[in-house]
Amino acid sequence: MTFEKVAVVGLGLIGGSLAAALHESREVWEVFGVERDPESLRFALRKGIIDKGSSEIGPDISGSKIVVIATYVDTIAQVAKEVSRFVLPGTAVCDVGSVKAPVVREMEKGSWRIRFVGAHPIAGKETSGVRESDPGLFSGKKCIVTPVESTSPEALSMVKTLFSLAGGEVVEMDPESHDEVFSLVSHLPHAVAYSLVNAVASGGRDRNLFDFSGGGLADLTRIADSSPEMWAGIFIENRDALLRAIRGFAGELGKIEKAVVAGNVEDLVALLREARDSKRNLGE
Amino acid sequence: MTFEKVAVVGLGLIGGSLAAALHESREVWEVFGVERDPESLRFALRKGIIDKGSSEIGPDISGSKIVVIATYVDTIAQVAKEVSRFVLPGTAVCDVGSVKAPVVREMEKGSWRIRFVGAHPIAGKETSGVRESDPGLFSGKKCIVTPVESTSPEALSMVKTLFSLAGGEVVEMDPESHDEVFSLVSHLPHAVAYSLVNAVASGGRDRNLFDFSGGGLADLTRIADSSPEMWAGIFIENRDALLRAIRGFAGELGKIEKAVVAGNVEDLVALLREARDSKRNLGE
Lengths: 284, 284
Hints:
Two copies of one chain form a homodimer.
Chain A: E1 3-9, H1 13-24, E2 28-34, H2 38-46, E3 52-54, E4 66-69, H3 76-84, E5 92-95, H4 101-109, E6 115-117, E7 119-121, E8 142-145, H5 153-165, E9 169-172, H6 175-204, H7 215-221, H8 228-237, H9 239-262, H10 265-281
Parallel strand pairs in A: 1-2, 1-4, 2-3, 4-5, 5-6, 8-9
Antiparallel strand pairs in A: 7-8
Helix pairs in contact in A: 6-9, 9-10
């Protein structure tokens, strides 16, 4: 499958990396980028991450075989609506957001002129912005697509091909399962990391407690360097699943707290051993 | 300063690594190891981690200029009492435990025949046991000593020299400050990591959720592979400070939860930005 033209809306870390990967592929002839920030757009053009670009969604995205929306999760439906005004009816559109059910279900309801496919490549890092983009970012990484009953098989097939061209391993999930899984493996850990930094910073007052930490604290707080705006959007989009995850986690921490209060070594060892064994079984 | 003989009681990761480092130093003539587990003791002798060894504390530790107690924190006072029966009066004894006030204050009370110095080299990893020991483990790492009013200056000086010989950078703190700092930078992160694994494992039921995680979850749960018995002891020894740290952290997580419940993007961004900025300022 070849793509004469692919448009990427939003040249951040993920959009920029996907554009760069597609630009390197022989199966994609033209990568068109849309990016509001003039400096990021110039950077993408200068570095050859995109062939052409524009600062806003307009008639020059027409002719795209597929449009990738790589903006924050809370803006995707709005951007998709905007895209639909300028592309041929039936054009495949996908997103790359970390929350799937709200956007997929909203796109299902509207009588859009586009064929939408929810997607989420599992390839972030704590840095952000087009300057950090890397054509190899998706190489060997799971790229989840979340088709529903109304999803066009042709559009789905195009989106899967696109992520394969970028080096990803495509996996299908339903949007609700996706959101539950990622509330636990990604959104909760981010909430925990941010909270841990705030707890250490306020507990330490003026002292620089990080001076005294071994590698553990650095590891646990690395992802707290991620974009606050992006993650606030993800947390609120995936609100119900995230709240379940936070409460489940708080319950587990409460069990440890209770055993410490009681000075109950046996219970405490049992809780820590359960975690240690799960960690080992889960093979990380 | 040379040491004709140093005894290390407990050949786990820290005890074994310290014995190995001292064994490589020209300033230490004999390293004597005490280790209950016969296989670990044989391993330490065979690999030249120690010169001589025994399965229990007895008369053959006499003649030691300094005795290092490297057993779990909840056993240190008991082991020190045992050591005091076999060494010359006034022999310097230190520990390497992660909690300092309880043991330092208990040693202060008793009319021991030894001169005790609390110590804590900040050099752990999630693995454990003498087979993991590494003479370079302390190289460039902070080794905290916690003298109090009653601490013998000569014993303190010997203990500082010992950790310097092992490659450490010696730092003095009072025991209570130490325990407060480490409740935040080490004990809390461990409690969080163990709880996170338990939350993900029980939230995921039969699915292997770790398959879907990016690097974030792996980083946050790496230290959940640490020894449950050792950490249960540390949590309970440092109970009051740890409970304050857990409650402070739960309060921070509660703020994020509250903003998510309310769908308040501004508050949420402010909380995450505060964490992101602290993380950056704290220079990790």
